[in-house]
Design a protein that fits this description.
- By secondary structure, the protein is α+β, with helices and mostly antiparallel strands.
- The chain has 13 helices and 31 strands.
- The strands form 9 sheets. Strands 21, 22, 23, 24, 25, 30 and 31 form a 7-stranded antiparallel beta sheet that branches.
Length: 634
């Protein structure tokens, strides 16, 4: 009767367990169907024929080949011996969960595989929540330890809390498991015994400060090195390859053959490759958490070899091989492609064919992948927004004149009353006085300074200029607005052209000479030209190269002679901030005119000329000034 009851209870427990597992599998199937809408890799087909591969490695390979985020717990065990033909990835995952009693915990796009073995899960949770047994007697200062597969970090935390002594562990051993049983030993002696029992060493750094570290430096494992598909690595020198859950690799090698490192890394990470040319030489490598492609870059960078991935297979050979050449269009976003080819260093262009594709504002690169990647990095570094500089220019002539008239003006006429004699002295100057600070600075500049930085001017500044022009103090010659790219010259020319007659007389023949006359009208130009080349720095300081040239006509000595010319020119190199206005001046033109009139003969005799005539003397001065205001536009 008792046996029947026990058998019944066992059957009920098993039915309950399998019923719960069936419900779990159904929920996993529903969740995978929902995820397949966002992750098409779950609906892709697979063809596998595997034997003797662990469940962990099999699931990781599925994740890599179909772009899935999968994590496998340490308690997942089992060996896969199956043949899958045209099976969906989601069906394969459900099969694994059913066959090996696994559960999938969904966290967003991440699928975490856990074992459904309740005893293993219970033991894992118990071990995680277990508090290390650490006892300390404050009176005798003795320490007792009863540890069994406890993490070193949790043990040291208990020791620090009880003894108030800082005991730290190196990151390499912090999460290692320790086991020891110690009764009533002084703290330092207990730490020595703990370290000895777990292949650790303890070092006293100071008062109440100890550090636990590994007893041995982490040399690569030389004995018992595993083999992969019959390939023995024990003869190739120190080499360690570890595949992380993320798919990246930890690789440690000391003076190992590059070929052997490549073979070990590819086989350990299940990355197939094909060698057109074998790599030569040795390498020492120590890298952590790097991708397979990065390791290939490191190994092949100093050689004439490169690699290319095609249909899941990594092809490795010389860079000039046809199968390894790459052609790519690189488009620029922020600047024109014209003249970019001139700036690429010659060493980068070696072995790469480069063509400009003006219609798409890009370059077509054809060559080995490493060389193309190097050129792409350079192009992206110079593909920046080129600022446009708007240059507001105002060209004015500031005029000052002074005239004096003195003497007696007599007019004789029948039936007319002679006009009274008059003496006058006149002076024309500034007819407007404005209290604006900007105008005051402007007037000071007119009176002797060659260049003044007016800073950011307000809109009423231009109204002040108009008022001065209306008063006759100055004449605005031109107010252009120029625009150019940073580092490019912008120019303005305003001119006038006049013509003069040139006559050529040619005598033809000797006995009966004939004279031929040829008249040619030749042009002469008088221009006002302005050339500005801006350079914008990173802090928006604008350096301006300025050249101003002005030429004017003077009176002709005869009707057919060319007109006279006077010219003024200056060059400046200045630096101002974005939006500030600079005033440049100093191109001065002077003229003096003296005239007189009066009675013949008497008006030319000294002293008498002031009685019988009048004299007029006038002076005029004109200065050319240029206002320049650069505005940077991105």
């Amino acid at each position: 009767m008792k046996n029947i009851l026990a058998l019944t209870i066992t059957i009920l427990i098993n039915l309950t367990f399998f019923g719960q597992e069936a419900q779990k599998i159904d929920s996993i199937r529903v969740k995978l169907k929902e995820l397949s809408k966002d992750y098409p890799g779950l609906n892709e087909s697979v063809e596998f024929s595997v034997s003797g591969v662990s469940v962990k490695e099999f699931v990781r390979t599925l994740a890599n080949n179909h772009d899935l985020n999968i994590s496998v717990a340490e308690d997942v065990n089992g060996i896969v011996v199956n043949n899958f033909a045209n099976a969906k990835v989601s069906d394969v995952l459900i099969f694994l969960c059913t066959e090996y009693h696994l559960n999938i915990v969904f966290m967003g796009s991440i699928m975490a595989f856990r074992s459904l073995d309740e005893r293993a899960e219970t033991e894992r949770l118990r071990q995680m929540n277990r508090k290390p047994r650490v006892m300390y007697d404050n009176s005798s200062h003795f320490l007792s330890l009863d540890l069994k597969n406890d993490t070193l970090q949790s043990v040291l935390k208990e020791i620090i809390d009880l003894t108030m002594v800082n005991v730290l562990a190196d990151p390499d051993v912090r999460m290692s498991q320790v086991s020891v049983y110690i009764r009533n030993r002084p703290l330092e002696s207990a730490l020595d015994m703990l370290a000895m029992a777990n292949n650790l060493e303890v070092e006293k750094k100071g008062a109440n400060f100890y550090v636990l570290s590994s007893k041995y430096s982490p040399p690569p494992k030389m004995e018992g090195r595993p083999t992969i598909s019959g390939y023995d690595y024990s003869s190739i020198g120190p080499l360690e390859v570890e595949v992380l859950k993320s798919g990246n690799l930890n690789v440690s090698a000391s003076n190992a053959s590059i070929k052997d490192i490549l073979h070990a890394v590819s086989r350990k990470s299940f990355r197939p490759y094909f060698l057109y040319d074998e790599p030569e030489g040795n390498a020492s490598v120590y890298v952590e958490n790097v991708s397979f492609e990065s390791i290939l870059d490191y190994l092949l960078n100093s050689s004439n070899l490169t690699f290319r991935q095609q249909e899941g297979v990594y092809l490795i050979g010389e860079r000039k091989d046809e199968m390894l050449r790459t052609t790519e269009l690189v488009q620029l976003e922020n600047r024109t492609v014209e003249s970019v080819l001139e700036y690429i260093p010659a060493e980068m262009k070696s072995g790469v064919e480069i063509k400009e594709f003006t219609e798409l504002n890009g370059l077509v690169l054809s060559g080995s992948r490493p060389n193309i990647e190097e050129i792409k990095r350079f192009l992206f570094s110079i593909d920046q927004v080129v600022p446009v500089v708007k240059i507001e220019v105002m060209i004015i002539d500031y005029q000052r004149s002074h005239s004096i008239s003195a003497g007696i003006d007599m007019k004789l006429g029948v039936g007319e009353t002679p006009e009274k004699s008059s003496y006058s002295v006149g002076s024309d100057g500034a007819g407007a006085t404005l209290n604006s600070t900007t105008v005051n600075n402007l007037l000071k500049a007119f009176n002797g300074f060659g260049a003044v930085n007016l800073g950011p001017v307000q809109p009423d500044f231009y109204m002040t200029i108009q008022a001065l022009e209306a008063n006759g103090n100055l004449k605005v010659r031109s107010t252009p607005i120029l625009s150019t790219l940073n580092g490019h010259e912008s120019s303005l020319t305003i001119g006038n052209t006049e013509y003069y007659l040139e006559v050529n007389n040619n005598v033809i023949g000797t006995q009966n000479p004939i004279t031929q006359q040829q008249q040619i009208f030749k042009p002469v130009s008088a221009d006002l030209s302005l050339n500005i080349k801006p350079h914008v720095s990173s802090d928006e300081q604008v350096t301006l190269e300025i050249t101003v040239s002005q030429s004017d006509f003077t009176a002709r000595i005869s009707d057919t002679a060319p007109p006279g010319q006077v010219s003024r020119e200056f060059k400046s190199l200045i630096r101002i901030k974005n939006g500030e206005m600079i005033l440049l001046g100093g191109l001065e033109e002077k003229s003096v005119n003296e005239s007189g009139r009066g009675l013949p003969i008497l008006s030319r005799i000294p002293v008498l000329k002031w009685i019988f005539g009048s004299r007029t003397k006038s002076k005029s001065k004109s200065k050319l000034h240029v206002f320049i205001k650069p505005v940077v536009i991105y």
